[in-house]
């Protein structure tokens, strides 16, 4: 199907918006009136610009408060409409959106609404224009799709049809059965379809609509369900995104447009009108790669954690550190950013790296140029929205190239402790740029096939953070996406690698005995644990001694502690018992405050 | 009355919060449990710190999900409570907040709730502690203040009382009569009063409460009305602020605490329990002062606008430019900030400058050190939250010193055109730091006696701006406070001085004839004006030629145009007709886009 995007969904000048929509591969745009008014380009120049960019102008919008008016007011509305139809002629736009009347002048009179919409359609027809009438969810008298359709049907005019907007429909209906009536509308009378998702917020419809819409798959609406009804009705027009979102208004238009297109690809995959390569979900974390200007501090931490440096890359200053199934690459690259040590890449273990890469590319993930030399093993990689490099790879697979083929054991390298089954990567926590949190969640779901978990607010002493995990169902891959309270916090919070162990107490003791420093946790925290839970003799004292945090839910328990921070990176030791699926969120405020307090204590 | 603030209302570590509360002059604090858990200080150390800072610990909070539980669950709750009462003993806190139960385990059984709260109060009494029971607005069965009070009354325990929270009460009641029942509660059974305001949002109560509370006078609740009821009931405890606000969480704790204290001073003034010096509202704008590293570009604009340099300060490089009642000081000071030319100070004409200054000081406005030399006329000044210096002064008043006494006519200075009645300052537009918008509105209302108008969202091409005017009722002083979409935009938007004229067309023509450059406005804007309004022959063409924007409402018309930008400052020419009270908000997106497009065109 053709795809389109409303200019209001993107940031910047009209020219910037059109360029971004075209580059992202959209077929057309809806021109939002304010964007035209604010543009120094004439309508003819806008038309030519769109043509040059390969974009059709699928809709001009909106026309407001037109129908069911006292005759005098309607005459004024018709006068306005004549001006706009002439403008549309110059633009080359043939469909205009008319929103249902919200003004106090509007009369509760469907027959009058139909009659006046018919007269508007007469005028439109003279200009070769179609009128798409849409029910706003807060329309004064007409605010449901079926009511708008009844009025359109009553008017019975060839140049009058309806426009369906997923926000206005799904924000009002709880029961999927309520929207089945869409299928009864003749497809050729559905002149347009506008798509937006939204998080499920209990708030005033107008505010919800104006500030919190998002792209399909980023919110809580069942857009696939809606789209199936619209397709069964016979709709053949474009899928068009109309998203009012305070964050997108500030974001780079190019990125937003790609994010938008990806959302439509995924939606079309769901309803079967597009078939990108099927997802090949990762089955584990092959490695995490740290880039550092100085390998010594992070190597010291890894050594104290019981990791052994088992191999070195044949052509680059990259060491492989290993304990059990946890593999960490330490890349002494140039210090690209002043933060020093950072988590730069993740190797995702997949049963078919090439298929994973094809999927990612089809879903518009930026494919990274090979950084390997020609003789290296082929490694497919894409960039995540936060810039993390994601490698699709295989480890010890009988019929696939092994990414470790480029590594050789070197003199002096240790060997990994023999506890393969007991250590691994529990999860990775990645701080996201503020403007790209929704994009990141959709990316990890759509491109990697991970499942987003619930979004959680976490109180840092200096602002609220938002955190959302994306995981495989079996928990073999867990990535926690975190975002600060405001754009300034983009880099204020560290990334971390959580290591799974079956004996967090032993691991913490051994780490400390080897000279590692654990994040100190306030005694008040343990007094509270004593109030909340009962522990065996000495158990709580052990946790307190080591700075181990504790959580328990109906499924199981979670014990975890933290190393000090090196650059932007720290490590967490994690022991899960039972089917505990969380990340110790109740402990996060205490951990974050302790990290702020320990600023002096953080290392290089 | 004593004043208190919950630690959750301020940003930072517990130590930072306590210090900020003390410095702002609060008498006590509510300690929020998470702040204690995250603190490395022992309870005894926290107690000592508070004592050193002159703060009492008025409340420990919260205890949750205690009452109306199955016996086994209640036993666990009592066990937790025992731990917390021991902790409170170490802290020296004698009142604990218990929130009404929200858990699915809670039973709908008031008798059981009363009985269990009584048993909790027994335990509390043994520790010398009082239990203040509060209805959360989203409590499972008990969610109104009167229901909570009935349960407390039924328990009939001396150590059990109620806590009233303005958010939980006012978020649920529309009719002022609904809260009169507060007066029927015996004052000595109101153990605590928590105050928070909130903007009137139609949204889920929990989200509204957790993210959007603000200090009294910053939202839409009638807190004075509520407080009068509570005082009539006989309450003698502290006024305590409990404000969950995403922005305050990120803001400097010291500033927030002062803002908080100011809000309570104003609230107490409203109900008559405090009497700061009465407000002396300004009656005009005496001058606006620009600071610039190079006077030439801004002097050229002023000259082209028909201003004359009429005088020069006797001791400083400050010129007075004047046209009619519009007076602008150009101060060639050191370039303090890289932005260059900026609006640094405003002279507010007041009938009693000393009284205005006393009021400001009593309401915690930072008093500025005199920058004048000893022989200069005395000028009282305070700093607004955005750093603008506000001078309280008199111009040509028979019995007050004239701020112009320090200025002398100098050779070569021109004289002002003879159009005193026709030119003046219409309004000043000041960009506010992102974290201080609510503070700024309250400051201008409380300290200066200006009245806040409605808050307006304005779509800039790169993000939504929020704008709110504070004015005198007669419009003699109008200040428009504007804030960007996110902290990064703090300085992205310019300040401006809007000059009132009774002939904007003539003024614009004269400005252009004198070499001034007007902001070009797209033709599409005028095509839209033609669709929306009818104009006399040639009228619209004149506006289009000059870049004059037009708005009309039921009260009157507004015509305005803009100069190019010098540093961070530009000028607007404004002609109001009839009783139009706005600022041309419908035109703001077009103007902002034009200013972005004209970046190359902006000067010095």
Automatic annotation (TrEMBL), chains A, B:
It is an enzyme of class 4 (lyase). Its cofactor is a divalent metal cation. Mg(2+) binds at residues 427, 496, 572. Residues 284-395, 424-576 form the VOC domain. The keyword Iron does not apply. It comes from the Bacteria. It catalyses: 3-dehydroshikimate = 3,4-dihydroxybenzoate + H2O. GO terms for molecular function: dioxygenase activity; isomerase activity. A divalent metal cation binds at residues 134, 165, 194, 242. The keyword Metal-binding applies. Its EC number is 4.2.1.118. Keywords: Dioxygenase, Isomerase, Lyase, Metal-binding, Oxidoreductase. Pathway: Aromatic compound metabolism; 3,4-dihydroxybenzoate biosynthesis. Belongs to the bacterial two-domain DSD family. PANTHER family: HYDROXYPYRUVATE ISOMERASE, XYLOSE ISOMERASE-LIKE TIM BARREL DOMAIN-CONTAINING PROTEIN. Catalyzes the conversion of 3-dehydroshikimate to protocatechuate (3,4-dihydroxybenzoate), a common intermediate of quinate and shikimate degradation pathways. This is 3-dehydroshikimate dehydratase.
């Amino acid at each position: 199907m053709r795809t389109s995007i409303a200019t209001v969904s993107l940031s910047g000048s009209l020219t910037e918006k059109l360029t971004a929509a075209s580059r992202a591969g959209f077929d057309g745009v809806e021109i939002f009136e304010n964007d035209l008014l604010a543009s120094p380009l004439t309508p003819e120049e806008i038309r030519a610009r769109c043509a040059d960019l390969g974009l059709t102008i699928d809709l001009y919008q909106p026309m407001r408060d037109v129908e069911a008016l006292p005759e005098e007011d309607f005459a004024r509305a018709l006068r306005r409409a004549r001006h706009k139809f002439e403008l549309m002629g110059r633009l080359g736009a043939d469909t205009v959106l008319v929103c249902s009347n919200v003004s106090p002048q509007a009369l509760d009179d469907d027959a009058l609404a139909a009659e006046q919409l018919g007269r508007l359609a007469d005028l439109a027809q003279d200009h070769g224009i179609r009128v798409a009438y849409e029910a706003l969810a807060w329309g004064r008298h007409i605010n449901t799709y079926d009511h708008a359709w009844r009025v359109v049907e009553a008017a019975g005019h060839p140049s009058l049809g309806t426009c369906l907007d997923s926000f206005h429909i799904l924000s009002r209906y709880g029961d999927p059965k309520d929207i089945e009536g869409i299928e009864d509308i003749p497809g050729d009378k559905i002149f347009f379809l506008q798509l937006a998702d939204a998080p499920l917020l209990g708030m005033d419809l107008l505010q919800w609509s104006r500030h919190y819409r998002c792209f399909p798959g980023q919110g809580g609406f069942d857009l696939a369900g809606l789209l199936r009804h619209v397709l069964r009705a016979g709709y053949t027009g474009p899928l068009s995104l109309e998203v009012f979102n305070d964050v997108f208004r500030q974001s780079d238009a190019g990125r937003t447009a790609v994010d938008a297109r990806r959302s439509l690809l995924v939606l079309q995959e769901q309803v079967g009108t597009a078939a990108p390569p099927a997802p090949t979900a990762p089955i584990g974390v092959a490695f995490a790669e740290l880039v550092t200007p100085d390998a010594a501090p992070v190597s010291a931490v890894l050594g104290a954690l019981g990791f052994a440096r088992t191999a070195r890359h044949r052509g680059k200053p990259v060491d492989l550190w290993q304990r059990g199934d946890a593999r960490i690459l330490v890349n002494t690259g140039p210090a690209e950013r002043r933060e020093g040590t950072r988590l730069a890449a993740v190797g995702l273990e997949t049963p078919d790296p090439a298929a994973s890469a094809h999927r990612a590319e089809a879903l518009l993930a930026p494919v990274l140029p090979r950084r390997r030399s020609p003789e290296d093993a082929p490694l497919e990689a894409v960039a995540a929205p936060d810039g993390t490099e994601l490698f699709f790879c295989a480890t010890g697979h009988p019929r696939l190239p092994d990414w470790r083929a480029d590594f050789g054991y070197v003199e002096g390298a240790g060997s990994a402790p023999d506890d393969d089954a007991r250590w691994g990567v529990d999860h990775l926590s990645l701080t996201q740029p503020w403007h790209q949190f929704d994009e990141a969640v959709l990316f990890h779901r759509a491109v990697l096939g991970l499942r987003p978990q619930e979004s959680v607010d976490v109180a840092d002493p200096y602002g609220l953070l938002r955190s959302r995990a994306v995981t495989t169902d079996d928990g073999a891959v867990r990535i926690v996406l975190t975002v600060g309270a405001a754009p300034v916090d983009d880099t204020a919070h560290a990334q971390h690698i959580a290591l799974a162990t079956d004996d967090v107490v032993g691991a913490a003791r051994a780490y400390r005995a080897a000279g590692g420093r654990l994040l100190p946790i306030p005694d008040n925290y343990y007094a509270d644990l004593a109030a909340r839970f009962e522990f065996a003799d000495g158990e709580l004292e052990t946790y307190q001694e080591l700075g181990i945090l504790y959580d328990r839910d109906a499924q199981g328990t979670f014990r975890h502690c933290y190393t000090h921070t090196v650059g932007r990176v720290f490590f967490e030791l994690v022991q899960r018992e039972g089917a505990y699926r969380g990340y110790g969120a109740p402990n996060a405020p205490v951990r974050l405050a302790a990290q702020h307090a320990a600023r002096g204590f953080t290392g290089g």
